[in-house]
Amino acid sequence: MTSAKDGYCYSFPAVRGLQAGKPFYIATCPLSTIPKIFMFDEHEVPPELRAQRTLNKSRIPEMVRYLVENPKDYVFSALTVSVGSNVDFVEASQGEIPNLGTLRVPMDAQILINDGQHRRAAIEAALREKPELGHDNIPVLFFVDEGLERSQQMFADLNKYAVKPSPSLGALYDHRDESSVLARHLAQEVKPFKGFTEMEKSSISSKSGKLFTLSSLKQANRALLGKGAKEAYSEDEKALAMQYWQAVFAATPEWQMVLNKELSPYQLRQEYIHAHGVGLHALGALGCALITAQPDTWQETIKELRKVDWRKANPLWANRSMLHGKLSKASTNIALTTNALKQILSLPLSPEERALENQHIPNSEAFHG
Question: DSSP per residue over 87-110, as a string?
């Protein structure tokens, strides 16, 4: 190992700390320096000789777009790196402020990224589109490397207890994604979602008093309005979503019974399809087809939902919402559930939807309504 005193160095304002008896350093680095200092070069090195996973390049464009589109309002968490060299730490003010000073890292030191290689790649690409981002800073957590084995263990330890937030919690806290904003608004203002939407978890326990998850409502709205993940919503579309779900509520006696305390949420989930994500998503997709086909009369047609027997025991849902006696929210099952609802409301199936019916629904179980 070389010493930072023996040659040219990078210098960073930093704070020194101790963890497991070993020093680490938290430094502030300009974004412009990140691609130059922290290299990530796989060169088809086998996994056993790497300290990181391979770069998933499909993740980069979305991260770049996030940086470029939100230059005044983005947040990137710290990079964690291992330095394959001795480093020097010069305390400020002759030690008057302990552990605050300047970290000096040799320019020829090997620096491995233990956590944050996708952020590093996104920063590099974003700087090509928006060079002024280079003046911003990002925190970097430096560890003094003790070899490949230690770096690999650090990667394993850093990711072992990382838990991705649930889709519902992500939707609850995401103020940029318009579909999340709309879902939150409906959950707070519209029956049957008001008071019956699980805002944090993406599954509902048997004892819960909730009916729907925020993530399911978000997906149902996208299906209703025919929107992709990043598309914007007009005020008219938001108003239409409110209007549609209110009309569905008025045509769904079981939902009304829950709100009137005549039926418990637990009973509804146990016995009925439309207390689950597959039913809600199918209702959203139904609304898209209905409003497109009948823009002026859909509110009258939606009343026909009262005819639907939503019980899981109804043979209509076999091989649609139900597979081997259990609910399935796979895209094919949502589409087949939507097909059944369309036929109940006398809406024609497209050739693709008809082909899906022929492929998955046995003749003896085909819809004849």
Answer: -EEEEGGGGTSTTEEEEEEETT--
Distance CA 239, CA 128 (A): 40
Look over the chain and give the mean of its residue pLDDT values, rounded to a whole number.
85
Are 79 and 115 spatial neighbours (Cβ–Cβ below 8 Å)? yes
Cβ neighbour number for residue 61 with a 10 Å cutoff:
11
Structure confidence by residue, pLDDT tens digits, 176-222: 788 888 999 999 999 889 999 998 888 888 788 899 999 999 999 99
pTM above 0.70, yes or no: no
Q: Which residue has the tokens 């990079």?
A: 79
Distance, CA of 82 to CA of 23 (rounded, Å)? 12
Which among 275, 299, 164 has a CA at the least distance from the CA of 220? 275
* C-beta separation of 171 from 181 below 8 A: no
Determine how many CB atoms are found less than 10 A away from the CB of residue 186.
24
For 340-362, how does the pLDDT look when each residue is reduced to its tens digit (9 = 90+)?
999 999 999 999 999 999 988 87
Closest C-alpha to 253, from 291, 309, 212: 309
Structure tokens, 265? 């949420």
Of 293, 271, 280, 213, the closest CA to residue 245 belongs to 280
- Dist CA 217 CA 251 (whole Å): 18
**Across 317-331, average pLDDT:** 87
Tokens 């009973």 belong to residue: 267
Picking from 216, 283, 210, the residue whose alpha carbon sits closest to that of residue 244 is 283
Gyration radius of the chain's alpha carbons: 28
Distance CA 79, CA 114 (A): 8
- Looking at residue 95, what is its pLDDT? 59
String of DSSP letters for 280-301:
HHHHHHHHHHHHHH-TTTHHHH
Pairing type for strands 79-83 and 111-115 reads antiparallel
Q: Check residue 21 and report its DSSP letter.
A: T
The amino acid at 7: G
In Å, the largest CA–CA distance within the chain is 87
